[in-house]
Amino acid sequence: MNIEEKVEQWLSEEDFIREMKYDENADFHFIIEFPNDNIMDVVKPKDKDCVVIACATQVAPQHLSLMESADKKTQKDFIMQLNFGLNQFLVDYELKVSNDILQQFVITEQIFEDGLTKNELVRTIKRVFKSKLHCIWLIDHIFTNPSINVVPSNENDMFI
Questions:
Q1: For labeling, which of 39, 81, 119, 133 is most exposed (least CB within 10 Å)?
Q2: Residue 148 pLDDT > 50, yes or no?
């Protein structure tokens, strides 16, 4: 069984697979759902000996407004706290920040083929999701005004 078949089997056994996506830069690209209503990507880039688990999130317009209305110190402290927090998850991440306002974030982690097991795949999917959750909770904790009703966003896009 090749790596694609193994990964597809493991994702299917856990009922994570949503669809297989054509990607000219990848040997395979699965769109998964973990947990319910959260979209992530499992990709094996061409000519690489690893599988990448990724989750990209746009910051909700309501949260952007709250961040923009915060003072500069709060905005800068938030970005610093976000960096420190994400580093503790031992994941790779990219923050798109404009004028000290977080616009979107992409969290990724790779598993090299020699360490790829079902256990490691599922643990990594969970770690990437919990990293995303950390970002959302931190935004909510620092910027949400209790007098404003903010609907959380779950817009996920992959930028590979």
A1: 119
A2: no
